[in-house]
Specification:
Strand order of the largest sheet: 7-6-4-8-9
Number of domains: 2
CATH architecture of the largest domain: 3-Layer(aba) Sandwich
Distance between the termini: 29 Å
Radius of gyration: 18 Å
Strand content: 5-15%
Number of helices: 11
Helix content: 25-40%
Shape: globular
């Protein structure tokens, strides 16, 4: 069991740093601890990763009204819609008019320290070549980036291979510039693509990219299907699937899934997170 007041996942990807900046707090090495659990990735469940122990009564800060309703159905009552940190970042870093976009950035479905992904990257490379215009950039999660076979497959295909950085773990090595770096890369590309619907697709849409989800979704070791898994993704968000999609319709979905239309004021957010002066 963990105490929601001190959970380390609140600092993944520099989320706490982004929110502290938006709340106009001083720039500390470590932002104040939040009084609750912040959703740290796009989630088709209740905002928590499946199987995460939850201290009864702890607040859960979720990105969207849809997630709040799902969380309520699971018995959570202290649920507050705050919006995604990435959506706040866009309000602080508006895009420069007239910026040039070209090519596609591809985010392969990835695992993490506790679960690895299996799949045919070579088949994915062939499909990307057939569908996308050059240049193609592949952004690997940190552990796949360190995996020579996976990285070399994309490099040998002639794609640029990058990594946004390390998300952090147990209050160590949190990269406050992770989302800043990701936003800058997305704004350089015309399209964002993945083989499974994920945070990066919604981020890219909100940042002005066209988006598409296609290719074999690959498999995650010991995948938890509590909330429906890949089949549910295709049923519930068919708009983003296929080689070409309706950008306006997908972008509206992104605004809803990231809570971009319900962002709080700095004072409201400070109060909810327990950062009031």
């Amino acid at each position: 069991m963990w105490d929601g007041d001190v959970h380390h996942a609140n600092y993944y990807y520099g989320h706490a740093h982004v929110l502290a900046r938006y709340c106009e707090l001083p720039e500390p090495m470590h932002p104040p601890r939040m009084r609750g659990y912040l959703q740290h990735g796009w989630n088709i469940g209740d905002g928590l990763a499946p199987g995460v122990p939850f201290v009864a009564g702890s607040k859960l800060f979720v990105w969207s009204e849809e997630t709040r309703r799902r969380s309520w159905s699971q018995g959570r009552r202290e649920v507050i819609v705050t919006g995604a940190p990435f959506a706040y970042l866009l309000t602080m870093l508006p895009e420069t008019p007239g910026g040039r976009r070209e090519g596609t950035i591809f985010y392969p479905f990835h695992g993490w320290e506790g679960q690895l992904v299996s799949g045919d990257h070579h088949a994915m490379i062939d499909e990307l070549r057939a569908v996308e215009d050059a240049p193609i950039t592949v952004c690997l999660y940190w552990n796949e980036y360190r995996s020579r076979p996976v990285r070399r497959a994309y490099e040998k295909a002639g794609f640029q291979v990058i990594c946004h950085g390390y998300r952090g773990f147990w209050w160590r090595d949190h990269d406050r510039e992770f989302l800043v770096r990701q936003l800058a890369v997305l704004r350089r590309h015309k399209r964002v693509v993945s083989n499974r619907l994920c945070s990066a697709i919604w981020y890219g849409l909100l940042a002005g990219c066209e988006a598409a989800v296609y290719g074999h979704p690959m498999t995650l070791d010991n995948d938890d299907r509590t909330f429906g898994g890949e089949p549910r993704l295709r049923r519930q968000w068919p708009e983003v699937y296929g080689h070409r999609t309706d950008t306006a319709a997908c972008r509206e979905l992104a605004r809803r899934e990231l809570g971009a239309d319900v962002l709080l004021s700095p004072m409201e957010l400070r109060t909810h997170l327990g950062w009031e002066a």
